[in-house]
Amino acid sequence: MNFERQDQGLAFLQRYENVAWYENGTVRLLDRRIYPIRTEHVTCDSVQAVADAIRDMVTQSEGPYAAAAMGMALAANRLEGERDPERLKSALRQAAYTLSHARPTTSAQMEGIVSGSCDVLCGLIDRGERGEVLTEAAFRFAVEYLNGNYARYARIGALLAEQIPDGGTVMTQCFGGTVVGMILRACREQGKTIRVLCPETRPYCQGARLTASVVCDMGFDVRVITDNMPAWAMHELGVDLFTSASDVITLDGHVVNKVGTLQIALAAKHFGVPYYVTGTPDPKHRDISTVTIEQRDPQQVKELLGTQITMEGVGGWYPAFDITPPELVTGIVTEKEIYKPEEAGKYFS
Fold it and tell me: Quick check: 175 pLDDT over 90?
């Protein structure tokens, strides 16, 4: 494929092959549940295995979207022997549904990606194409999606980097995926030195393991703090900007992101720290009433990296996301421009 890869200069875990990659009848995912403690990949040999990996958070942030796109190449590979066009298209649509509905909160966004792949493949089928041609087309779609997404986040990262003063301190939440690396790359290009504070983000500790690893890997000063420290860190250490990615941004300006975002946004409001969320408003969610908050296994909050830390009989509760209202959001940073939350719908103007 002849194009400039947009992952140049980013950290190890943000290289395309370490996000999600189809090759020789399997999809390979870097296991973000254990990185950087161990660097291991999960290999999926079926569409259901890819969906299970997404559900089980082998990958998260931008990872599930890339995995779903690569999963469509795997689906096409498994159907290379099918000649009947209607059975072929039906099986591809079922694969797209399985991949996009692995996690409920983000299913609407995931549908857009796998449906795009499915449309390309069905168009080829209608023109008489079969076999390896479909697999190659699905893989090409997935790589082009990845590259295009990275290019979009490069523009987002550059816009957000302009809001950070040289020598400033940025607080993150969870793992923003591609945009974290793009912000840092843009700061480097703009000649800025910054410090990053990463709340750990229990129970999977994506902030401590993933965000902090990216920042360190790219040569910037980074400190990990526990999830009960953000407000005091703002008071004692000084924070110039709080940023998070988003799982959903509704057209009325609500932000759905990893649980814990709301409490940091509240602290930021109290201390006068601007909160910029990165992502794209979603026309499928005109208001917050259309969003379903995923409830995960409560056992996970009673464990730390697989080791139970509570007494038997203790209960747990684990909503995967929370909702930050628009009055706590300074701006929505898109590849076009920065919008006020109440103007989120203008993105589509």
Answer: yes
